[in-house]
Structures are given as structure tokens and as C-alpha cells.
Amino acid sequence: MTRLFRLTFLLTIILLSFTSQPSLAMRYEIQNPIYTGHAKFISPSTGWVNSGNGNILHTDDGGLNWVRQFTGSTHVSAFDFADGLNGWVVGSNGTILHTNDGGITWTPQPNDCTKSLYSVKFIDVDHGWAVGDSGTIICTTDRGNHWLPQHSGTNTTFVEVTFVDALTGWVRGYSEPILHTTNGGETWFNPLADTTMGTLQLYSMCFIDRNNGWFTANIYGYTFVLYRTTDGGSLWQPQFCRNSSLNEVYFIDVDHGWVIGDSLYHTTDGGVTWSGMTKPAESGTQPFFYDLNHGWILGRTINRTTDGGNRWEQCFFGGIAVSYFGVSFPKPDTGWVAGKQGVILHTVNGGRSWSRQYPQSGYTLYSVDFIDVNQGWVVGYHGSIRHTTDGGMNWVSQASGTTRSLWKIDFANANDGWAVGDSGTILATTNSGNTWTPQISDKSNQLLCVTAIDSQNVWIGGWYGFLLHTTDGGKLWQTIPIDTSECVDEIAFSDAQHGWFVGGEIHRTTDGGINWTKQYDYHGNRFMSIACLDSLHAIAVGYDGLVVQTTDGGDHWVEQPEYFGEWLLGVAYPDARNAWVVNDDGQIIHLFPEDDSIRLRSQIPNRILLAQNYPNPFNGTTTITYALPQSGNVDLKLFDLLGREIVTLSAGYRSAGTYRVQFDGKQLASGTYFLRLKVNGQSNVRKMVVLK
Known about the structure:
With 692 residues, the chain is mostly beta strands. It is built from no helices and 63 strands. The strands form 16 sheets. A 4-stranded antiparallel beta sheet has the order 1-61-58-57, with no helix packed on it. The two termini are 22 Å apart.
């Protein structure tokens, strides 16, 4: 707190992690995951990967095929295997689970630790260590049947532990120090206590024996350095320096190692010299090498090499980090999403896995519509229309006759469909899109959505709040007056009489569109999409992670508290048990609309997110939501217009997930302030207004 403002603030931090809600006790399967966890291989063929939300992927063929294993807890942050059967996972609130059958079943191991644990290391089936919050170090010598605390002498949050034998080990936090033990953890000491290496942010460490080790760090926020020790950590020397990131380091012996960040580098002389290697596309920054030839890199994909990294092949596809705008599920198990760069993803198992399809177009795709599991269309930038009749195995370009962007497509049946877009563009087809014919209305501004109830009854919505309606297939379009100036972003009808449209508000009709009634207003935020199952059940999504659901025709809308990215852009609702949402952060989110409440399963975000506080402007309390793609040190502060720090809202180590902070600013003067979130070298800023 600065001297300028000696205030008392009510700061309540509420964890809303995707993986820690009591309602999520069911098993879930991740949609297009980002692999932020590590890998462990006990042979070139047998290994495991942490894929988040309590799931671990297992392979017995070097990564060509993967089986998802669920640990039974969503509070998992790290794992380790001592052999092909015995493994452990650790997580929130002292969670420790053990498997003795290779990950098929997991059993909790009771312990007295209540702190969150972020790393675990076993050197054999008996001896292991786990580390976490507030300087926590615990150890076991009997396979985890008993865990005993060890004294670290610090409150630093430890995020990594490694041992090379039963006596020699190291632990690290996100920043200094690195602690060392030579007696199995009975005592821990900081070998650098009397030295100064600058202000370091630590990213990873690797030791191959009692003497030789490496760690990567960021110095003063802009220089990335790889350090090496040859005496167990008493003396560290910089070996490799870059202005771009060096996130993870991995050595298999004293000579051969790899370091990865924005690029991939390899050494054969212990790090004296480094050579650049081709980093696989769509990969992350989590490497693991079993020997000189066999290695894996984790990210949105799992890529493997069998020649030391000279060539890589993608062996598991987890999704692509582009904005997704359109989603279509003709059946609960079969669906498509479409987005930037012409990316189309397809699932045939309810989203447990997604494969990429190639429409031979690099144009952004804004909408996708499938009438069954075989026949579908996508539309997008520059008048692009693509059609498939074999479930997306092959896509054929259809001539739209326009270069204007097309924002939405909808088919009433296999023959009759409409596409709408910029400058009042309306295109219609009666032959599956083999020919598209322009139709005329009195609107010349942007048309954002279209829904075809049947071949004659069609609705269109657009910019600046209007509806167009036809009852003759588009020969005549009539403007329908509505009580809003907001955009109409999406229209959904369950039958000819019952429907909704969304934009800044939710409006409802029960008489075929003759009259529309406002049902829900999210205080100036914007709904982007709505889907209905029938005349009672609907889900709407929009800006700031907004998800609302009704089960009574819209008389009541229930807002869901979870945060899934800044812009939720599309929703599909194929049956009572399943719905899918896509957003601009590359997420595919599976919703379970059961028991009048939505249960959610999702990946964590792929970048830090700081949502706009709500309400804003505010007078009194406001809620600030942020989300983390991976664990790290959080620094969320409030500043005034002159850049003076007012208060720290959230600080310290946080696991990957979503968090909300309630802030009481009653004692702040009216004016503009700035929120700044810094995590792991990334930052995000929001403007906040106090109005009294």
C-alpha cells in the first residue's frame, strides 16, 4: 500500500479453477488440450503425459497411440513413474494418488500435508519426494504409505524437485533460491546464499548426476540464460544466452542435451556450443528425451523424434491455437468447428479427440453448418464457400459470386440454404450450393446471422439492431421492428413459433416473430451466439466468458460463474446432455446441461487472460477475473493514471486455472485506474473506472 492511499481494501480471492469445482466430481474428457504438464518415459515405447484435469495419456508404442487414464482427482498438477507399474500424482491440498498397475487405477495416499503440491520425484519404487506451497517438502521411503515433512527453512513455493540418488537432490521455486541436499533431505541448504546472480526468474532445471546440472532463467525481464554447474550447484556459470525465451532444458548425459523456447537447440559437448534444430510446428516447450534418439515435445500436439530431433512427427493432435467462430454438431458424438486460417477440426467421439480437416482455403471461416454426418458447408472471408458430402474428407469450393465476407450459413434441408455477410449480402441456393443466387432486401449494412426454419420461413439479423423475415424463400424480405439498437448476432428457433435472438440482450418470441420480448440484459456486455434444444431449453454465450442457460423458455436465465476466455463466439446444443462452445482463444468447451445447471469440462487457456472487471464503471465492489495457462507467480496490481501503485490485488504462486478477485474500492476517488496482470513474463492491462 502506498502512502498516498492508506486505505483498507476488502480483497477476497476465490479460486474458480476449471479443475476444482465440487460439481465436477464426474469423469471428464478434455477437448483440444494444451499439454502444459511434463512427460515420463521408462523406455522408448512406454511413457505417460500429463494432459490436465486429472487426465494422463499413456502409450506403449512410443507415442503412435495414446490411451487416456483418469486419476480420479481433478486436483492433479504433476506425476512421476518409478517403473512400468508404480506411479504417483500430486496436486492441490496435499493430494497424492498412487497406481501399481501402470495408471489404470489410482488410490489416494493419506498424509498430513494440506499445502498444494506441484512436483514429485521417485528414484525407485520406495523413495520419493514432493514439493509445493510455503516451502513444503515431504518424503517417503515406503512407496508413499507414509509421507514425512522435511524442513526447507523458507516459505518459498517450490515448483520442481529432482533427485539423482537416494541422498542427492535439488528443489527450486519460480525465483531464487535453488536448495540442495546431500543426505536425502534431512537438511537443505542454499549453496548460493552468499553470492549474487542478479534478479532471476527460474524456468526449469536438470541434473544428471551429483555434480552436473543446468537451469534456465530470465534475468531482469528480458535476457534468457542457461546456467551450468559442475560441482552440484555451488558455482553456476552462464553457458547460453538469448533475447528470446529458453524455457526448458533436458540432458540425458554430461554431453548431450536440448533446450527449447521459441526455438529448439541441441548440444553434444555439455553446452559449450549449441546448434539450432527445427522445432516442430504447433509444438510447445516441454521436451523429454529417453536416449540420444528418442524424444518428445509437448504442446497442443505431441511430437516425437527417433533420430535425436533432426526429424519430428506429430503423434497426437490436441488442437490448434486459432480463434474458432463456428461450431456444428448434427449428432452428439459428431461435430465440427471452424475458424481462422481455414482451420476445421472434426470429432466422431463427442470431442474426446479432434482431427484436422483441410478445406484447401487459408481464409478465415466464420460459420459451419452440417445437416447430417456427411453433408456440410463452411463460409468465411472473401466470399469463401466450401461444401463436403463425405463428412469433411474432401471439401469442394462453391462459387459465391461475391468477394464480401460471409458471416453465417444455414441450411433448412439438403438443398435449401442461405448465407449472409457484409454490405447486406444475402445468397440463397436450392440445389445444395451448386449455384448461389443473390437476394435483395432494404438493408445495406452487415448481416451477421441467418436461421432457416424451413425452405420458406427464414430469419436474418444484423448490425444496428434489425430483423429480416421471409415466408416465401427470400423472394420478399420484410423488416421486423424490434425494441433494441444492439446488434443481432444470432437467431435460434426451436419451431416456427418459438425463438430467440441475442446481441446486447436476449429477446424471445412465442408467436412466430410477431412480437419480441426482452428477457435478459447483461449490463452492456454482448451475447454472440445462442442455441436452443426446444421451446424451453436454450444456452447463450458471449463476451467476457458469459454463459447463461434457461430451462423454462427464458423466464429465468442462470448465469454460469466459470470463465472460459474473453469472447465465446459459437454454441451448439445437439441434445439434452451435451453442448459445445468455441472461443477466440482456440478453446473447444464441452458443456453438460444436466439438472438445470451446466457442468463444464475444458482445457485451460493458452495465454494469460485478464477479463474486464464487472461492473465497470463501478461504485463500491467489482469483480476481477483472470485465467492462467500454466502455473506461475501472479502479480495483479492497481495503478492510478500517473502510474502510481495503489494496491496489490493478487500475488504469489498460482496453479493453472481461473481466479476471481472481489475488490472493494469505496474509498477510491472517481476516475480512471489501470489493472495490470503479470505472470511468467507475460502481462495484460485493463482500464477500470470508478464513478461516484
